[in-house]
Amino acid sequence: MSQAQTKPYLTLEEAIKIADAAQAKSTAEGWNMVIAILDDGGHLVSLRKMDGVQTGSIDVALGKAKTSVFFKRPSKAFEDMMKADGGGRISTLPNVVAIEGGLPIFKDGVLVGAIGISGATSAQDGLVAAAALEAMD
Amino acid sequence: MSQAQTKPYLTLEEAIKIADAAQAKSTAEGWNMVIAILDDGGHLVSLRKMDGVQTGSIDVALGKAKTSVFFKRPSKAFEDMMKADGGGRISTLPNVVAIEGGLPIFKDGVLVGAIGISGATSAQDGLVAAAALEAMD
Amino acid sequence: MSQAQTKPYLTLEEAIKIADAAQAKSTAEGWNMVIAILDDGGHLVSLRKMDGVQTGSIDVALGKAKTSVFFKRPSKAFEDMMKADGGGRISTLPNVVAIEGGLPIFKDGVLVGAIGISGATSAQDGLVAAAALEAMD
Amino acid sequence: MSQAQTKPYLTLEEAIKIADAAQAKSTAEGWNMVIAILDDGGHLVSLRKMDGVQTGSIDVALGKAKTSVFFKRPSKAFEDMMKADGGGRISTLPNVVAIEGGLPIFKDGVLVGAIGISGATSAQDGLVAAAALEAMD
């Protein structure tokens, strides 16, 4: 009897739990955010835009999440690289938004997707992303 | 004293109520769907992709919703036009997905956004979209 | 003494005269339209979107005008070809919106741009485009 | 009796008044400009390209205006951020043209659109944009 190789994936139920946590943290802090959650192919599983958030934050949140799923790391990692070397080099990387607020999502050590947050300062975006992923624990 | 010209808009709370209704209808029927809700500028307010839906349905749902918000009518209207006249003409219209499953959302007779559903047959997609909008009543 | 080869071009003043005529005709008929005027390279010289016109008409008007300047003929010419042969062939042509409402603009027999109208039925769009170009006489 | 949530919007009449003011200022200074005005969804309401302006300025003006409507701030805000920190980070933001000449348009404190100017130096572009918005007072 053959045994297929399998990988875990992010369910909608999990994505909604993460998005709920992100929205609760944002509301508690008085921030309005776009909350984007992608699967391991970089495709949307869940998105919410809270009232009054600037339209530009939709693509920024999507871009941060895509950065994290395409490169398996926080989007802040590229922001830090830029600060170290002036940044030009990194700005030519396809599919990178080099701003804090994107985090990869792992299950059992395997990448299953990413979250991207935009709407406040990038440090605040990062706080909400981190708080949201605690819902996965 | 000046008087601004105003128009209504779609809140996240309303969008989530609509998405919940779409998801409930889909679950009741045993269908898995992508549920996309856009504002009156064609920008995302809410998206959910139920487990196992084909990746292609994300852009189909977005395209149907964009069709409805850009042209203030059900995406099925273009499907019907195509059947009536052979269809070539309609296939050259920019931003049109001429398949049932997109519906405009009105408040007090003013367009505030649209819903797009994809994942099952287009007739089933249309049923879910219609059921979802009953949550606005 | 050398003599450069020259070609006439569409001035903003002329484009505004044409747009004014299109807007006057639309208002007289009770139609709201997008009025797009392109130069001979297919680039915008003038655009107006009357209040309440569906957002989708912007790209449709631009597409009809681009069709007329790229192919030096009314966009209706492609609509007629489609009716003659079923249309599939024409729908694969790049940069063609095969719907009435786009007309090329000539000065001294030389193509200088095009107008595209969208917002009502395609026949009404075509009437407004034709009325607008009379302002060039 | 239901009460819709409402927001103000930009009329074509207002957009033309703003564009007229931008064109008058440009003419007075001897500059030729592209003048682009978008609604709150980032879609065109009015565009004018004065005679002789480089073709590239069309997309620059559109990009500056989109930056301002998508991020609810002058496009110069991003130019300043770039100068402050080396800029790489900002260059990865989607939908941002980080050059002076784009300004958001507000009515009663609510974003209703934006203006983008391009054709001269960015400082001159910014002067024309600012002069144009005085027509809203």
Question: Any descriptors?
Answer:
homotetramer; 137 residues; alpha+beta; Beta-Lactamase; four-stranded antiparallel sheet; 5 helices; 4 strands; 44% helix; globular
- Give the SSE string of chain A: HEEHHHEEH
| Overall average pLDDT of chain A | 94
Strand order of the largest sheet of chain A: 2-1-4-3
| Radius of gyration of chain A (Å) | 15 Å
CATH topology of chain A: Beta-Lactamase
For the sheet with most strands of chain A, the description reads: 4 strands, antiparallel
CATH superfamily of chain A: Haem-degrading domain
What is the CATH architecture term of chain A? 2-Layer Sandwich
Class of chain A, according to the CATH hierarchy? Alpha Beta
Greatest interface and its participating residue counts: A-D, 20 and 19 residues
Low-confidence stretches of chain A: none
Assembly form of the protein = homotetramer
Instruction: Please give the count of helices of chain A.
Output: 5
Q: What is the beta-strand fraction of chain A? A: 15-25%
Which word captures the global form of chain A? globular
Measure the end-to-end span of chain A.
34 Å
Structural class of chain A: alpha+beta
Helix content of chain A: 40-55%
Number of domains of chain A: 1
